[in-house]
Amino acid sequence: MYLYVDASYLANASANSMPPESLRHGAPAVALEIIAKVAQFIRSYNATRVYWCLDPKGGSWRKAVHPAYKAHRAEKLAKDPAREAAHVMATACIE
Fold first, then answer.
1. Is 0.90 topped by the overall pTM?
2. Burial of 3 by CB count in 10 Å (0-12 exposed, 13-18 middle, 19+ buried)?
């Protein structure tokens, strides 16, 4: 079985699900969280191959299909510094 990982989604979900004290360790902590989740998926689904799907710089097809995709993200991040830090770390992990 093949496992396709939406890296952008997983990075942000991982960073946003971590407790604030873990975020103090920076991008390495987020990267470890991502690896742990992928390892769990590999075991759960008996995956034999893993493919990482990354959004290209400058946007992706999602914006064309759904113009409101991430439309309010910057606004939400500005209101919550911890969430903004998590987003920055998650982005650093997948670039």
1. no
2. middle
Interatomic CA distance for residues 8 and 69, integer angstroms: 13
d(CA 56, CA 69): 15
- Answer whether 81's CB lies under 8 Å from 9's CB: no
Q: Which residues of 60-70 are buried (b: 16+ CB within 10 A; e: fewer)?
A: eeeeeeeeeee
CB 7 within 8 A of CB 77: no
Output the six-digit token pair for 20.
């604030």
Q: Which tens digits make up the pLDDT trace of 11-59? A: 888 877 878 777 777 778 888 888 999 999 999 999 999 998 887 777 7
Q: Nearest 10 degrees: CA dihedral of 87, 89, 92, 94?
A: -70
Structure tokens, 5: 């990982």
